[in-house]
Each structure stands twice: as C-alpha cells, then as structure tokens.
C-alpha cells in the first residue's frame, strides 16, 4: 500500500482567473446557453433564438465567395501583412469611398479576425485605468466587456424605447466627464434593430467635437436593411472628429465563421498618430488575421450583393421579421418596436403582467419549460429585467413553434405571478 508523502498532504491553492475579468461578461454565450448545451446532450431539441449565427439557419455565404477562398487556399499558408492583404484592404478602401468616408488610405485600414477582435484591440490601444467610454444601453455586450477589460469604465447612455430606441442626446451629454475619451455608436443597432437618421448622427458628432471624443461606429449590419431605409456612415458627415468604423463579412455576407472584419480610421487623424501607431503595435503582436478569410473580402465587396434579395419584402429575412413581430406583439402584455435593420427584436414585458425580478432566472425557466433559448435584456446592459432579445433567423415553421411556446410560457407566468 502506497504511503502518503508530504505532497499528498498539501493544500493545493485554487487557480483563479485574472481580476481583470471580474466585471466582464458576455451573456449571449453565458450560463443559460451552457444549460441549453447540457440539455441538448441529454437528447432535448432546443429552438435557439439567442445568436445571430446565420449558417445554423441555412443562410450560407454566397458560392462565389466560397469558391474564391478555396481557389486561394494554396496562397494562404504564410502570414500576411499585419494590417491585412493588399487586395482586401484596397477593396475596403473603395467601400469607404462608396460610403462617402473621406481621406481613407490603405494604412488607415486594419483587418482582423472578425470585427470583435478589432473592437477589443481598439479599446486596449486607447484606454488607461479610469478612462471612460460612453456605451449605449442596451448595447452589444462585447463593447462593455472590451472597455472593462482594457481598464476603462463604461458609462451607459440611454436609448429611448419611446423614441423608437434612438439615443437620448441629453442623456449622452449628462454622462460626459473629464475622463470621457470616446462614444460608441451601434448603427444599425443590435439588439433593437433601429437605424439612426442623419440629424441624430450630426448631433452626436457635435457632442464629440465639443468634448474632443473619438467616435467608435459599429456598422456590421449596414446592408441588413428593411422597408427601403438607407444607412449613413457617421464618419461620412465630418472630417474634424476622429472616427473608427467597424464592419465585416459576418452578417451582410453570411460568413460568420470566416472571421473577416475590418476597422477604418478616418477624420481627424493628425492629432491621433500615437494612438494609430499603438493600433499598429497590437496588430503586429497577433501577426495577422486569418489569411483564407481575407481572400473573401475583395469578392464580397464587389459585384452582386445577394443580401438585397433577403431583405426585400419578398425575401426570407424580411418575411421572418414580419412574422416574428406579428406573433410576439399578439401576446398579451408584450410590446416591441419593429426593427428597420439587423436580425433581432427586443420585446418588452409589461411588468404588471410579468413581474420579473431576475431575468436570467426567467429565461432559464423558459428554456427548461419550453426548450426555447433567448437572451435576457440585462445581458445587453439594459437596467430593468423587462426585455429579452429574439433572433428571427429560424425558418417560418420554427419561428411559429418557438413563439407559440414563448406565448404558452408567458400565459403560465402571468397567471401565476401577474397582478390581478
């Protein structure tokens, strides 16, 4: 029999995560999703309305893009320039010209492993401890997480549901302090599907100009537009403010897994050269973004834009948006601003009928009861537990089934907890 030695008697200390992660969360892939995965492993079929992962719902990247990536695989074994392939950046430069963003050269463009990598990079390159960044509420939670991870403090400004989720300019101004470095704009917006008019963009530019703020513009859904609306890049409206604009192939071109995104630095660059040099250092540290995905960019940005067929009134995305909106707003106590863009809805629950105190617990109960997965509103840094986000990517039959299950759960919930 083995005798215990001294090492067997030691108390092994726990290995803890970095304290920098203490306030960082990303509930779109959080603990409720982990529970859904466990349920799937146990044999349950879960209808997922939580993530805008288009390929999972039959939305594939155009074949022309696929073929160009395959054709160029033999040329993809080596590193590219740390900012990206010349041809890909040239195509992005031309796209910036189409969006009327002035003064963009090749050196102003950084290609990354999706826009997500570049969002994190842009915050790491800018923020010191105590610096503040204005972030919308609700937001795409990566922005809040990226600010926090970089040592900054996110200050959430209100997007007003009563004004179709447009940012509240007065609230933005009230949140500015001497430590504020930048403002984040998500347009078209995730999770609300709102698109911002030029007049509002001009007001935000004036705030940035007056307070010497950088504008970070997340425009990843700029082609996913319904009802004939158009999108204006905020960077096209001024040249005396520093803009950093993010986009990529994930949504417009249904190529989430290609991890091909970019950021464009424009506007008042002369006074930001040290920051831009810092972005170059960070780009070099990760060597380059994946090269096969970069080969998709030039093909995607040129030629026929198949997203237009999907968002047209007869297109699958538009029809599914209309169906989801109709079904959700037919549920007693559920209201929703109809999205003009993107892939999501952010419905509200009447708190008198649905007195939810913990919305993560609420969506977990929905998952376990009805096998439908959504994301709670507080996961998007919305303060009150009265919203949730729905992805309308599943086909019509699955949408009808999923929302009927949500309706059944809500009927049970209001009968059990609602105020009589």
TrEMBL record:
Residues 46-406 form the Aminotransferase class I/classII large domain. Keywords: Aminotransferase, Pyridoxal phosphate, Transferase. Its EC number is 2.6.1.2. CDD domains: AAT_like (cd00609). It holds the Pfam family Aminotran_1_2. Its cofactor is pyridoxal 5'-phosphate. It is an enzyme of class 2 (transferase). GO terms for molecular function: L-alanine:2-oxoglutarate aminotransferase activity. Belongs to the class-I pyridoxal-phosphate-dependent aminotransferase family. This is alanine transaminase. It comes from Candidatus Nitrotoga arctica. The gene is alaA.
């Amino acid at each position: 029999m083995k005798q215990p030695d001294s090492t067997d008697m030691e108390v092994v200390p726990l290995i803890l995560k970095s304290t920098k992660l203490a306030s960082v969360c990303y509930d779109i892939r959080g603990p409720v999703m982990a529970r859904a995965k466990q349920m799937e492993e146990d044999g349950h079929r879960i209808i997922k309305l939580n993530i805008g992962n288009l390929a999972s719902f039959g939305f594939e990247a155009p074949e022309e893009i696929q073929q160009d990536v395959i054709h160029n695989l033999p040329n993809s074994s080596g590193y590219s320039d740390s900012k990206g392939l010349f041809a890909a950046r040239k195509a992005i430069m031309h796209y910036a010209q189409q969006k009327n963003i002035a003064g963009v050269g090749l050196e102003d463009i950084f290609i990354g492993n999706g826009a997500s990598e570049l969002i994190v990079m842009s915050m790491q390159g800018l923020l010191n401890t105590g610096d503040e960044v204005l972030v919308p509420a609700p937001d795409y939670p990566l922005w809040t997480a990226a600010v926090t991870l970089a040592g900054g403090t996110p200050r959430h400004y209100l997007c007003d549901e009563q004004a179709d989720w447009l940012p509240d300019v007065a609230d933005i101004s009230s949140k500015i302090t001497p430590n504020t470095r930048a403002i984040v704009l998500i347009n078209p917006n995730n999770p609300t599907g709102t698109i911002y008019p030029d007049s509002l963009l001009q007001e935000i530019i004036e705030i940035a100009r007056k307070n010497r703020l950088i504008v970070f513009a997340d425009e990843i859904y700029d082609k996913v537009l319904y009802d004939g609306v158009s999108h204006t890049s905020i960077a096209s409206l001024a040249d005396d403010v520093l803009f950093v604009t993010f986009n990529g192939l994930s949504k417009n071109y249904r190529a989430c897994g290609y991890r091909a995104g970019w950021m464009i630095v424009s506007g008042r660059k002369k006074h930001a050269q040290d920051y831009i040099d810092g972005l170059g250092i960070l780009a070099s540290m990760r060597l380059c973004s994946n090269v096969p995905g970069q080969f998709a960019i030039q093909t995607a940005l040129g030629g026929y834009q198949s997203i237009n067929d999907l968002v047209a009134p007869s297109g699958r995305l538009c029809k599914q948006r209309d169906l989801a909106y109709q079904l959700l707003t037919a549920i007693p106590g559920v209201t929703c601003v109809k999205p003009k863009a993107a892939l999501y809805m952010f419905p509200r629950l009447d708190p008198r009928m649905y007195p939810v105190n913990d919305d993560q617990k609420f969506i977990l109960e929905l998952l376990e009861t009805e096998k439908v997965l959504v994301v709670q509103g507080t996961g998007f840094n919305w303060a009150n537990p009265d919203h949730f986000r729905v992805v309308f990517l599943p086909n019509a039959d699955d949408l009808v089934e999923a929302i009927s299950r949500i309706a059944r759960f809500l009927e049970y919930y209001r009968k059990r907890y609602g105020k009589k």
